[in-house]
């Protein structure tokens, strides 16, 4: 009888948790970070990292034949967590400031993912300024190497300078690579902002101006 009550209590606790929070999300995030920290090699801040996923029945939309559009953006959270951990980006930001938030994101869907299709998400930094770090993510199916979706995300750093954060990580990468037994150290060139990103930022600025509304509007009256 006692065992039945224990099992019923455990089941009730699980149901209660699932009713309050997205348990799968937090569990997967936890294991993503642990796996990146202990099972994967560290990556240079300008390297491209990769995680893998599978489109399950939890991911499909109401039409029941492809991944829900929102799930693509959700997958980017796990890809960024893997990237942050392997490159020490998040630790460096926190050592200089108070963290990082997603400032903006745009995604282009090119071809849908069917249920039970395996995919990979690649992540890399494409440029940065004093306030933000810009990342590009690609969701690719390995069997045909087709880019199913591509996203650009703006990571705003809080109470620190993104230039200083990147400079510290780039310097650390040079020291770690170094020159050993006559082998020339690996160098990474800072990427320039592409026209695509520049135009995207311009559209964001236009959107911000529209949301703020007209300023200093002069009203002209006639007699």
From TrEMBL:
<keyword id="KW-0812">Transmembrane</keyword>
<comment type="similarity">
    <text>Belongs to the THEM6 family.</text>
</comment>
<dbReference type="InterPro" id="IPR029069">
    <property type="entry name" value="HotDog_dom_sf"/>
</dbReference>
<feature type="transmembrane region" description="Helical">
    <location>
        <begin position="6"/>
        <end position="27"/>
    </location>
</feature>
<keyword id="KW-1133">Transmembrane helix</keyword>
<dbReference type="InterPro" id="IPR051490">
    <property type="entry name" value="THEM6_lcsJ_thioesterase"/>
</dbReference>
<protein>
    <recommendedName>
        <fullName>Protein THEM6</fullName>
    </recommendedName>
</protein>
<keyword id="KW-0472">Membrane</keyword>
<dbReference type="Pfam" id="PF13279">
    <property type="entry name" value="4HBT_2"/>
</dbReference>
